[in-house]
Design brief:
Elements: H1 2-22, H2 30-35, H3 50-55, H4 58-73, H5 82-88, E1 97-101, H6 109-112, E2 120-124, H7 132-144, E3 149-155, H8 159-165, H9 173-177, H10 181-185, H11 198-219, H12 221-228, E4 233-239, E5 246-249
The structure holds zinc ion.
Zinc ion binds at residues 102, 104, 155, 158-160.
């Protein structure tokens, strides 16, 4: 009798274990649950549709970014069937957001937010500053393509910020840094204002993100009106190089 009881208990435990394996992970976002399919080794093969994009709010996109970054930190990136996603997004795209980031090789934007094909637009320039081309790209993303969020993503230990702090002069880097230098000069700081001072570099990084957000609102009446109407949100973030965590400034 004891043996039968043991076998029954064991069988029950295995069933519970198997059932829990097929359940979506508790920290996975709702979009992951919706599109999760077990037909291809549990990978996600769907891409965002026009209807799904239209149903999203800016706050839901921010929340999905926070959850995606947490999965990146946990080394738990979503498995995606990229070739299937390529085929499904051949003729149209309905990304939920546009992210402006630095060119830094240590920050693969899609990965740190756990995004796949068709999920987000990404604009990149050293020092993640705003210019006319970037603004045009953002207007295309939001006004034409229906994205709900603009995120300016700066990062710790940024070489472009350090170069602006030290007022480096070199080729085309010189005019590029004129986009960041005014932000550095405007910082009220009495200590060491060189790139050797991590505290000052970090201040410049954060102020540079805030300046970019202000520039978007000031230089793009289209995006300004969309934000005022609640159609989009414009937020910042700073990526921590030690942990992979994004501090959201929303
Ligand atoms: Zn950088």
């Amino acid at each position: 009798m004891k043996t039968i009881k043991f076998i029954l208990t064991g069988a029950f435990s295995i069933c519970v274990l198997l059932a829990s394996c097929t359940q979506p992970k508790s920290d996975a976002n709702s979009e992951k649950k919706e599109v999760q399919k077990d037909t291809l080794q549990g990978t996600i093969e769907d891409v965002l549709t026009k209807e799904e994009q239209a149903a999203l709010t800016p706050d839901e996109v921010i929340q999905s970014f926070k959850e995606g970054n947490q999965r990146f930190i946990n080394n738990d990136l979503t498995a995606r069937n990229h070739s299937e996603q390529v085929r499904k997004s051949t003729y149209a795209q309905f990304p939920k957001a546009i992210v402006l980031s630095c060119v830094d090789s240590r920050i693969p934007v899609e990965d740190v937010l756990d995004r796949g094909i068709g999920d987000i637009f990404v604009a990149r320039v050293a020092g993640n500053f705003i210019n006319e081309d970037i603004l045009g790209s953002m207007e295309f993303a939001c006004k034409v393509s229906g994205s709900k969020l603009i995120m300016v993503l700066g990062h710790e230990h940024c070489g472009a910020i350090k170069a602006a702090v030290d007022d480096v002069k070199l080729g085309n880097i010189t005019p590029m840094l004129t986009n960041i230098r005014p932000v550095v000069e405007a910082i009220d700081y009495k200590g060491d204002r060189s790139s050797g001072n991590d505290e000052f570099v970090q201040m410049a990084c954060e102020q540079n993100v805030i300046a970019a957000i202000n520039d978007i609102r000031k230089e793009s009446p289209i995006l300004n009106v969309m934000e005022t109407n609640g159609e989009i949100k414009i937020i910042g973030g700073v990526y921590d190089m030690d942990t992979g965590k994004i501090e959201f400034m929303d």
